[in-house]
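Q: I have 124 residues here and want to know how they pack in 3D. Can you give me a structure?
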Amino acid sequence: QVQLVDSGGGLVQPGDSLKLSCKAKGPTHRSYPMGWFRRAPGKEREFVAAISHIGSTTNYGDSVKARFTISRDATDNTVWLQMNSLKPEDTAVYYCAASNLYGVFTTSRQYHYWGQGTQVTVSS
């Protein structure tokens, strides 16, 4: 029903910044609560950030709080994840997700649509 295209990953050094984007395409004009998750090799999927459908409320995982910022545009069709002060432990595939529910969600099961993922590698 909803297709998400996430992009913007790359190879950076510790302390650098990256900005990921997620563009949503769906059959309706509604906006969706959205979030970012990441999966590092050999590790469980981890919640990164979430934003409400109108962008008024956000939430962050403890490991990225104060370094990452999630935002969305006025048309609700694009969500960004600004990542600052990147660390090697931030290395992962980052996935954007959208929910059919309303709220700010922190678990994978609360999301219904997923992007393909974009690789972020932080290495010196």
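Q: Anything worth noting?
A: The longest strand covers residues 18-25. The radius of gyration is 13 Å.
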